[in-house]
Design brief:
- The protein has about 200 residues and is mainly α.
- The protein has helices at about 25-40, 50-55, 60-65, 70-75, 90-105, 110-125, 125-155, 165-180, 185-200.
- The protein is built from 9 helices and no strands.
- Helix 5 (about 90-105) packs across helix 8.
- The longest helix has 28 residues, at about 125-155.
- It is elongated.
- Residues about 1-20 have low confidence and may be disordered.
């Protein structure tokens, strides 16, 4: 039986269906409920029970999909299987600019800003929860970014000594801090400015 404490238990597995196929309408109703509650009530109040009431489903329907509240909220903010990367522009500057906007757009909206501090606390207490996010989101994203930078190096637009992972972490760190502190305010200009700074630092 699932615990009534939404913070109990840690699972590194992806949500799995059991029995009959999952109804995508239920999945969407649950996700919408999570996003609404995060904005209206905050992370702590976005419990499995509260989400079930808002979505009009039973708590067991949620537990069949997610083992813990952290998994549920994480999947609502960073949907599994939705890793869509920028279409290459043909120039290093254009590609970095698109990546900067992609990263900032994923962090600056109200539900993400409400969820991330709570999720960070979960990651600190349970490293396995963070490992799950890394495996399904960060590693493939980092790989795609690295391939973009390596293409720029091959075209002679970036210095051969450029470290793609360092650029990725610089970009992610800058966008994360900006999103948490400012949200939507000045986001477009900031993403453009950081992209230009990264391009200059890696120029040949």
């Amino acid at each position: 039986m699932p615990s009534s404490n939404d913070n109990d238990g840690v699972s590194t597995a992806q949500p799995v269906s059991r029995g009959r196929p999952r109804d995508p309408r239920v999945d969407e109703a649950i996700r919408a409920a999570v996003l609404e509650l995060l904005v209206e009530e905050g992370y702590q109040a976005t419990t499995i029970q509260a989400v079930a009431r808002r979505a009009g489903v039973g708590a067991p329907s949620i537990y069949r999909r997610w083992s813990t509240r952290a998994e549920l909220i994480e999947d609502a903010i960073f949907p599994y299987g939705d890793n869509e990367y920028p279409t290459p522009t043909g120039t290093f500057g254009g590609d970095i600019r698109r990546w900067a906007h992609l990263v900032l757009d994923g962090l600056k909206d109200a539900p993400a800003r409400a969820a991330i501090p709570g999720l960070l606390s979960e990651y600190h207490r349970s490293p396995a929860v963070y490992d799950r996010l890394v495996l399904r989101t960060e590693l493939p994203t980092r790989k795609a970014f690295r391939e973009m930078v390596e293409s720029a190096i091959d075209r002679g637009e970036a210095d051969p000594d450029t470290a793609p992972d360092l650029l990725f972490e610089t970009l992610l760190g800058a966008m994360f801090l900006r999103a948490m502190l400012r949200g939507e305010r000045g986001a477009t200009r900031f993403a453009d400015d950081v992209a230009a700074l990264i391009v200059r630092s890696a120029a040949t």
